[in-house]
Amino acid sequence: MASAMTKAALTPPLRRALLQSRSFQTSSRNLIPSAFGASAAAGGVPSYFQKPSLPANTIIRFVPQQTAWIVERMGKFNRILDPGLAVLVPFIDRIAYVKSLKENAIEIPSQSAITADNVTLDLDGVLYTRVFDAYKASYGVEDAEYAISQLAQTTMRSEIGQLSLDHVLKERAALNTNITAAINEAAQAWGVTCLRYEIRDIHAPDGVVEAMHRQVTAERSKRAEILDSEGQRQSAINIAEGKKQSVILASEALKAEQINRASGEAEAIFMKAKATAAGIEAVAKSIAEGEEACTRCRQPVRGGEVRGCLSASLAKESTARRGAGHVATLVA
C-alpha cells in the first residue's frame, strides 16, 4: 500500500519533467541553428556576438541528431553528450556549449584587396565549414565562427596580393583552393575544418572595367582581322591552285597533241619509205629481167625468134621506165 502511494506521489513530478524536457527540446532546436552556437531569429542573419540560450538542466534531456552538447560539472568539463537520451545531475551539471556537427555556410562580407599589379578589388564569398571536434570548438576559441570569418578575410587578402588582376579573374578555382588550405592549417586547433571556399563576386574599379572592355573590344577586332586575312589568304591559295591545275592540264593536252602529231608524221614517213622501197625493188626486178632477156638475145637463133626477143626487150624497158617514174612520184 505504501509503495503504491509512493508511486502515485512520484509520478506527477516525473511526468512534468518529461513534458518540460520535450517542450524545451523543441524550443532549443529553434534557438540553435548555427554550427557554432550562435542563435538567430527565423529568417534573420546570425550575429557573432549574440549569445544563445542554452538548454536547461531538467535531469532528462534528448540530444538531437548531429548535435554535440558539452556538459560541465561544477564549472569543469565533464563529458560530451551524444544524440539520444541523456541524464543530468541537477544543480551540479550544466550544459555549457551546444555544437552542431552539420555543414555550415558562413557568409564572408565584402572587403578590399590589392592585387600584385596594384589594382584594388572588392570581393565577397561563402565559406563552408564543419565542426569535427566539439571540445576544441568550445574551449579552443571564444567564437569559432567569427574567428573563421576573420581568418578567411585576411587569407583572401594575402592570396590576392600575390596574383595579378588577370590571374585573379582566370584562376578562381586555384585561388579558392589556396584559401581553403590556408584556413584549414590554422583552424585545426579550433576543431573546425573548412570544406571549401567560393568567391562570389569580384568588383573592380570603373576605370579598370572600362579598360578591360576596351581590351576585349580590341582583342575581338584583332581576331576578326586575323580571320578575314586568313580567309583572303585561303582564297588566293585556292585561286592559284586552280590556275596551276589549269596550266598543268593545258600543257598535258598540248603534249598529247604533239605526241599524236609526231606519231602520225612518223607513220606517214614510214609508209613513204616502205612505198619507196617497194618501188625500188620493182625497178631492180625489172632491170634484172631485162638483162636476162638481153643475154638470151645474144645467142644464135632463128630470124623469127630474134624479132620476138627484141620486141620483148623493148616492152620490158618500157615497163621499167614506168616503174621508175612511179617510184619518183611516191618519193616526191
From TrEMBL:
CC terms in the record's Gene Ontology section: mitochondrion; plasma membrane; side of membrane
Coiled-coil segments: none
Domain Band: start-end pairs: 58-216
Pfam name, any one: Band_7
Organism: Verticillium alfalfae (strain VaMs.102 / ATCC MYA-4576 / FGSC 10136)
Family from the record: Belongs to the band 7/mec-2 family.
Entry-linked SMART domains: PHB
InterPro entries, per database record: Band7/mec-2_domain (IPR050710), Band_7 (IPR001107), Band_7/SPFH_dom_sf (IPR036013), Stomatin_HflK_fam (IPR001972)
GO terms under biological process: mitochondrion organization
Protein name: Band 7 domain-containing protein
